[in-house]
Amino acid sequence: MDLALLTELNEARLARQATIRVTDPNDGSERLVREATLRSDDPLHDELVARFRSAKSGLIDTPDGKRFLTVYVPPPRIVVIGAVHITQSLGPVAAIAGFDVTIIDPRTAFASEERFGEVKLVAKWPEDVIPAELALDPYTALIAVTHDPKIDDYPLKAALDAGCFYVGALGSRKTHAARVERLKTAGARAEAIARVAAPIGLTIGAQSPAEIAVAIVAQVIEALRLRPAHLAPMPADVWA
Amino acid sequence: MGNASDLTDRDVLGIAESWRKAGRGVAIATVMETWGSAPRPAGSHLAIDETGHFEGSVSGGCVEGAVVEEALDVIASGKARVMEFGVADETAWRVGLSCGGRISVLVERLD
To answer: For residue B69, is pLDDT > 80?
Structure first.
């Protein structure tokens, strides 16, 4: 491995850019491919797209011989909008499951360290944090739980724009119907709106805030690991 | 916010880069293929320096010793190689995987 290539790879990983190193195990020749700049005429294009999605490294046969693909995708993280009761359980549950968690809520009465302890907490409006301090990306899940349009709507749109692997919003069917109308008015396409998981969480009959937190994290894991069709990443054509 | 914590002090490739930039000879071992039950998936890294320090893993600790030894040769020669490990064969005293799987590991010098 070339040191300059390793340096570039480490920089890409720090910047949360999904990257694949393509190696010829016979002669050691190598190249880096970043997901963001993958060319449609790359000889391994389809294979690379599939690998970025599955995040699995492996040896493949090509017309030019064997190639080893080492896939580096950013560690998954969760951004929660709303420091509400559910979030007090959601933070620790998500952290135990291995996610890097950030909670954003401009209401300082909710977003207090006393209520959240160790979890990363930002007491600002979402539009002042995203994307200036925190850029959403396809390896981020966004969960909006304030059900206040003034707080939730901006990050929900930003999450659809960024192609977040999971976008979920808390609220009754009535609340969500109103949200859908607002997104439509803002120009979002029906397929994009359909990506917002609502009612949020897997259907396990969750009642208490802690149970709802478990149902939400389980749904995030499902989106990450199984990539069900209705949660397929859709970074392009969010807006009509 | 956020990003700095993604590459921690225990990040294997970050450590390999810093070792090399400090002038040490370094090899990187990577799990290339697995068959059956294997403790670490393809793409897992082990970084080794010229004095035998290592970071990361390519198995559950079963074959690291053999990989580190081979890596010292690779650092000296510059010639990459592929190592294969199967089930431990107690009578032959060979290193292997007690889980019953097989793995192949690419060992290459960081130049």
So the answer is: yes
